[in-house]
């Protein structure tokens, strides 16, 4: 059995390129119930598996969100979208999270206001199963392509629509860290030639699903955000761009006008 002291684990993780080796070693030591399991977890991390998939959870917006193998790991920058959306989460607000992945965004908004009516959807089966675990007793999760599987009863009634759609340009996926491009589904990363294919599809349909005065929140990159905002305006929404320097988060906010 290899040396499983904390210092030895830190050295192995650091040698594998883990930037936060000390923090990761502490989490693995806490999670393992025996030396054999610890060695297996350390080796999987050294091999490049995302830490969150090894632990079975990710920390997001103060929550421990369940993460299963093959499911997109929520990024800290996405907490910014949660904070912006929650400003509008009044009691009985209808909240829809598209491309929901593990359900982290919906879970975080619900934690801040459990009086919302929460719906979520994703095209990826493993993500839907994971989201249903995270949103059990909180909201309904549907499997399918964007708006397609959603109940017609919420059409035109959505107050808050959040979407962390894939926005990495196809040719740039190869530049991503191995733990993302090798262990997260390509459908959760690939946004098409310029990264905005899915965002444009969401923008094209959003006005039909939003309530008058309802808001659409889409995470983007600082470079892509002006084009995302353009897609909003081309589809009848107002648009503004918000950026969080600390976490590197960029969110484009669209609003359905209240027409006379």
Task: Briefly say what this structure is.
The protein is an alpha/beta fold and 260 residues long. It has 10 helices and 9 strands.
Give the strand order, joined by hyphens, for the main sheet.
Answer: 5-4-3-6-7-9-8
Bin the helical content. Answer: 25-40%
Report the radius of gyration as a whole number of Å.
19 Å
Poorly predicted regions: none
Total number of helical segments? 10
Descriptors for this entry?
260 residues; alpha/beta; Rossmann fold; seven-stranded mixed beta sheet; two-stranded antiparallel ribbon; 10 helices; elongated
What's the structural blueprint in terms of helices and strands?
Blueprint: H1 6-15, H2 21-31, H3 35-46, H4 51-55, E1 57-60, E2 63-66, H5 79-86, E3 94-98, H6 104-112, E4 117-122, H7 125-134, E5 139-143, E6 158-163, H8 178-181, H9 197-209, E7 210-220, H10 225-234, E8 238-244, E9 249-255
Parallel strand pairs: 3-4, 3-6, 4-5, 6-7
Antiparallel strand pairs: 1-2, 7-9, 8-9
Helix pairs in contact: 1-2, 5-6, 9-10
Word description of this protein:
The protein has helices at 6-15, 21-31, 35-46, 51-55, 79-86, 104-112, 125-134, 178-181, 197-209, 225-234; strands at residues 57-60, 63-66, 94-98, 117-122, 139-143, 158-163, 210-220, 238-244, 249-255. With 260 residues, it is an alpha/beta fold. Helix 1 packs across helix 2 (21-31) and helix 9 runs parallel beside helix 10 (225-234). The longest helix has 13 residues, at 197-209. The protein has two domains: 6-66, no CATH class; 76-255, Rossmann fold (3-Layer(aba) Sandwich), CATH 3.40.50. It contains ten helices and nine strands.
């Amino acid at each position: 059995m290899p040396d499983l002291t904390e210092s030895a684990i830190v050295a192995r993780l650091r040698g594998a390129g883990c930037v936060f080796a000390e923090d990761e070693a502490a989490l693995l030591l806490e999670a393992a119930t025996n030396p054999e399991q610890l060695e297996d977890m350390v080796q999987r991390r050294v091999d490049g598996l995302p830490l969150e998939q090894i632990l079975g959870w990710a920390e997001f917006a103060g929550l421990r969100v369940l993460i299963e193998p093959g499911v997109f790991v929520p990024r800290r920058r996405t907490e910014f979208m949660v904070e912006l959306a929650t400003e509008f989460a009044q009691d009985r607000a209808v909240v829809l999270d598209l491309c929901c992945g593990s359900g982290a965004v919906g879970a975080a908004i619900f934690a801040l206001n459990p009086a919302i009516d929460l719906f979520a959807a994703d095209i990826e089966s493993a993500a839907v199963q994971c989201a249903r675990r995270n949103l059990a007793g909180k909201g309904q999760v549907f499997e399918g392509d964007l708006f397609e599987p959603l109940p017609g009863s919420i059409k035109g009634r959505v107050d808050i629509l959040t979407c962390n759609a894939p926005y990495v340009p196809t040719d740039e996926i190869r530049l991503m860290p191995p733990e993302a491009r090798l262990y997260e589904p390509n459908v959760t990363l690939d946004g098409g030639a310029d990264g905005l294919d899915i965002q444009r599809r969401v923008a094209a349909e959003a006005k039909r699903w939003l309530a008058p005065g309802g808001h659409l929140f889409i995470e983007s990159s600082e470079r892509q955000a002006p084009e995302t905002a353009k897609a909003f305006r081309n589809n009848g929404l107002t648009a503004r761009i918000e950026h969080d320097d600390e976490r590197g988060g960029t969110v484009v906010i669209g609003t359905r006008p209240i027409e006379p």
